[in-house]
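S.,

As promised, the nicotinamide-adenine-dinucleotide run. Input:
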Amino acid sequence: MTASPLLSPGPATPGADPSGPLYESAVARVRAAAEEVGSLREVALILSEPKNEIVVHCPVRRDDGRWELLEGYRVQHNNILGPYKGGIRYHPEVSLGDVKTLALLMTLKCALYQLPFGGAKGGLKLDPAARSPSELMRATRRFTSALGVNIGPDYDIPAPDMGTNAQVMAWMADTYINFAEISQKVSARGVVTGKPLSFGGCAGRESATGQGVVNVLRVLLPGRGESLRGQTAALLGFGNVGSWTARLLEAEGARVVAVLDHTGGVRRAEGLDCAALARYAAEHRGVAGFSGGEPLAEEAFYRTPVDLMIPAALEQMIDAERADWLACRYLVEAANAPTTPAAEDLLQQRGVEILPAILCNAGGVVVSYLEWRQNREAETWEEATVQRHLWTRVERTADRVLQRSSRTGQSLRTAAYAEALEHLSEVYQARSVFP
Ligand code: NAD
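Predicted complex:
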């Protein structure tokens, strides 16, 4: 591409983007990485808006006979590398701006890991904890049918995210298959990943994002002359990602000394029993009241001295105030976009190293890619095969980011974004812009 002037650089003033400050700060980070490399401004321009934003409204019948209208989103951010790919979130406060941001991050994540996927994300405004299984099933089926031909195994492939799981994916796939042509009903199951094992799922998918976080640390820490054994960790969020990261860290000889979720906090200086805590949290819908540790207040959680602070809950929870409380050496972004720009500046000044989300939490999408491949080939791989593929992909990617960061002096975030943008740029340069 030639260095032509950019005709639509997007809003320059904070607050000017109707998608909200989260989207604006995500785009600003992309632009900053592109500027730092110097030759990627055209790609940053293309990535500054999604290709498609789909908003649907679905009438759903409650168990008591009342009708309600649910709002759902699917944002298809970019598909230059392959089919759109990204999770579906069920949350009462999910917004189009959040979904746009998460879709952009998926484009970057898939590009960084050199997967043959683009980026997308979806959301449905509902609280899954307040729904019966049959209400959840009806809402899922109606949302899937509203998305219609906007999803498909070669076009846009959803997966689980916050508030959704393998069961929700099974309902989505079943609904899609019921609308598929007779000759396509077998291949149609590849429309979603994160399905139950019995229905075309992949061994190791449930723990994959946590395993990816741990694999990144297994590459990064030796690069810093350290190992995971003996490190102390605190987890913010103890759902799928948080609880698996904790259990797998414990298996590597690290000590999880503090956990906070939406119900409260718990600490144990000698290390929590993470498997027992995961069982307790699943049964009681949170960690508060766990008898294997002492209760912990919110501010005390953030102030706990640890090697690894691991946000694994909602976006933007590490703001400037909480960043000021942190007493960690590494901030490991297991959640998407957990750190505000102001918090990031503050932590960098204090020498806390931030491991960016697009590097840390890609284990889920890597294993989703393996599931999609198995569905296409009508294969079922052993978990050891899945783990080998996941390890190789994480090791190769984390190595590239580390090497770029030490070669250029860039932060790990800028190095990761630059690697992703360069990969996208190569494809855009080869194809150019139509017409
Ligand atoms: P989850 O619904 O299983 O768990 C979410 C956790 O966040 C729960 O423990 C909940 O208590 C906690 N939480 C919510 N609000 C909180 C609050 N105000 N204070 C403290 N804790 C709070 O979700 P998940 O799948 O584990 O996803 C967590 C994060 O990881 C999200 O950012 C998600 O986008 C990201 N992520 C998930 C996957 C995946 O495969 N599930 C993959 C990549 C990234």
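The pocket of nicotinamide-adenine-dinucleotide is lined by residues 160-163, 209, 236-242, 260-262, 286, 312-314, 334-336, 361, 364 (CB under 6 Å). The longest strand covers residues 67-78.

- D.
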